[in-house]
Amino acid sequence: MNRGRNEQNRYEWVKTQLSQLPSGQRLLDAGAGEQQYRNLCSHLRYVSQDFAQYKPESDPTGLQMQTWNYPALDIVCDIISIPEKDGSFDAVLCTEVLEHIPDPVKAIHELSRLLRTGGTMLLTAPFCSLTHFAPFHFSTGFNRFFYEHHLKEAGFEITELQINGNYFAWLDQELGRLPEIMSKYSDQSPGRIDYQAISRVRKMLNIAEAKDKGSEELLSFGIHIRAVKSA
To answer: Rounded CA gap, 72 and 49, in Å?
Structure first.
């Protein structure tokens, strides 16, 4: 599968985190979608949940998937009201979901309810995102202060906070998308000289990224969180 740098970084982080969960643990994949991480959970008791209402053909707004198919889901429901008992999971995985929820803080508290004390939460979401999965896109992203505040309120202790990319990497990503966006939203496409200019700026951004000294505090692809539910 051809993955962009943003997605590849996230996939490798999730893969590593899942591999570290003890065999036999019961894991909830909240907002599982097409269940891309199921194959990494063969050592776990995997339970998928999603509201299963996204249909890319129903709304042309923003960036939509060409196709989207929900495999058989274990639980179909709203993420803020999952019909499972308190503390019924050892771990929860929730990746790139919070921006698609009208009230992400309620979702965090619901996932906390479902986790046993000492259970693990693996959470990712964009720092900054373009409109996608419309009409189910309610937040462009979240910075570290959102997690530090709301996870603590929900009874979590953050044990790992990894920032994916930085300001220069994010700009490079968007410049790579620029010809597609121009073609869709304007009456012109980049010419040969324009492509040369884009290429030159992207090279400059790559050099700046290699010498980066903390620009992720301004902007990044997203944030990866491992948190433990406190007593």
So the answer is: 10
Q: Which residues of 180-206 are buried (b: 16+ CB within 10 A; e: fewer)?
A: eeeeeeeeeeeeeeeeeeeeeebeebe
pLDDT digits 0-9 by tens, 12-23: 999 999 999 999
Give the mean model confidence (pLDDT) for residues 217-222.
98
Tokens of 92: 């929860």
The 3-state secondary structure of 68-129 reads CCCCCCCEECCCCCCCCCCCCEEEEEEECCHHHCCCHHHHHHHHHHHEEEEEEEEEEEECCC
From 161, 157, 139, 158, select the one nearest 217 (Cα to Cα).
Answer: 161
Mean pLDDT is lowest, of 50-64, 74-88, 116-130, for 50-64
Return the closest-CA partner of residue 28 out of 108, 101, 114, 98.
114
**Whether the model pTM is above 0.90:** yes
H or E element in which residue 180 lies: helix 167-185
8 Å CB contact between 51 and 133: no
Let me know: does 127 contact 143? Beta carbons within 8 Å.
yes
The secondary structure of residue 229, as a DSSP letter, is: E
Residue 2 has pLDDT above 50, yes or no: no
Q: What is the mean pLDDT of residues 49-75?
A: 94
Amino acid at 79: I
Domains of the chain in start order, with CATH, are: 5-166+216-229 (3.40.50.150), 168-210 (no CATH)
pLDDT level of residue 4 (50, 70, 90 thresholds):
confident
